[in-house]
Amino acid sequence: MKRPILIHPDPRLKKVCAPVTDITGDLRKLAKDMLETMYDAPGIGLAAPQIGVLDRLIVLDCVKEEGETPRPLVMINPEVVASSDDLNTYEEGCLSIPEQYADVTRPAEVEVTWVDVDGNPHKEAFGGLWATCVQHEIDHLNGKLFIDYLKPMKRQMITRKMQKLKREQARV
Question: Which pLDDT score is estimated for 65?
Answer without folding.
Answer: 83
